[in-house]
Amino acid sequence: MILVLTEYYPHKSFPMPVQKCYLENLLLILDYCVILEERLWEVILDRIIEIDVEIRLEDLPDEDELFLENDDEFGLFVMDDEQELANNNDIEIAYKNNANKLDAMLGLMIQYLEAVPEGERRDNVFKNMLKAFDSLLLHTHKSKFTQFLIFFICKQNRDYATYFLKYLFNKLEVEVESPIIQRTCAAYIGSFAGRAAYIDISHLKEAIHSLFTWIHRYLDKNEGSYPDAERHAVFYSVCQAALYVICFKQDLLSNNFDHGFMKNLRIQRVLESSLNPLILILSTVVQEFHQFTQNLSYINCGQILERNKNIVLPTKSSYGGSNHLDTFFPFDPYLLKHSSQYFKGYYTYWKSENDIESSEDDDFTPDHDSVQGKPSFQIDLSSSWERAQFMVEDNEEMNMSISPLPMSGYMNSFY
What we know:
It is a single chain. By secondary structure, this protein is mainly alpha-helical. About 50% of the residues lie in helices and about 0% in strands. It is built from 17 helices and no strands. The protein has helices spanning about 1-5, 15-30, 35-50, 85-115, 120-135, 150-155, 160-175, 180-195, 200-220, 235-250, 250-255, 260-265, 265-270, 285-290, 300-310, 355-360, 410. Helix 2 packs parallel to helix 4, helix 6 crosses helix 7 (about 160-175) and helix 7 (about 160-175) runs parallel beside helix 9 (about 200-220). The longest helix has about 35 residues, at about 85-115. The radius of gyration is 22 Å and the shape is globular.
């Protein structure tokens, strides 16, 4: 049966009503044919990802263009001298139709997740989603929104969020994993812990502590090495994730500030190490971290930043690749208009004071009172997929976001 369902799954080019209808029926099968559940989740997510990776963020539809489908149902003829323009328009419409399809399909998936009863049934759904995540999403470079299904189900049960982080830390820990997978896990840890507003202070601190535990163990083996974005890519990715979380949750950390906790992270040792992470991780993360720690006597970024101004790194790494750290933050803002409503109050947005005042009526952002953290800086991406600039309704340009050794403290909390 699974072979038949897979074979007749509509091609990604099929219009949205066809995609929704087929998906609705697959979700019905999930409820009464448990033996197929694990395989069906893989089929469903695989086909959603196929549409996801085709989306260009700059082509996300405006309100008037949502649910526009170019089915050519009226059979209009196009004159020869208009053919080239029509072809270009068809391409643009195809991109925007993909966004409409994904918006509708993810909205349907979220509605299904909302309706799953608590207990064993929901636990099984989460486990099967995580298996599909492991086999599909973790290996998909350009997925922009599909991973938010995990983000959503984790907010339904805080134990799921804990287990998801455990899974990511375990993958980061295993040295036989490819560096690409380890770096991806680091990106997911940083982006999830930074963006999920439902993670409490105790689990947040445990995650940060575990990231720095990994960093210090890496330095124990590699102190004396020179900065190299390719050779030490996992190290820089983990450093970036750790500082990213601190920056995003700086208000939560400040309201529950623990100097003993911060001192025990031994951050200064990391910053002053020969691998010099501040010279390679995203500059906006570095700048905000520097601002956050200016009043902490045991963390001093200023001298390191001044010294780094006089350091010119080779353009090529020792392996021959680019000596530049690629950045990826999988939970950058969710910009599909209709399904975005399901994340209000559970997602941490960057907020400057002006943004807070001007976005109270914005349909894309939660009420500012429910947002944890309102940093006063704006992040301009350098290499994430969110570098593509686009507009969301009447808001200003959304340039506020930035698109694997045992973890002794954090990992023990999972058992």
